[in-house]
Amino acid sequence: MSEIQKSDPLKSLKEFTAARIAIGRTGTSIPIKHSLEFKLAHAHARDAVYSTLATESLFAGLAQFNLPVLHLHSQATNRHKYLKRPDLGRQLTPESGDQLKDYDTAYDIAIIIADGLSASAVNENAVELLRLLIPMLLDSKFKLAPLTLVEQGRVAIGDDIGFSLNARLSLILIGERPGLSSADSMGAYLTYGPRPGLTDEARNCISNIRPQGLIHKPAADKLFYLITEALRRKLSGVGLKDNAGLIDH
Question: Which CATH number covers residue 117?
Answer without folding.
Answer: 3.40.50.11240
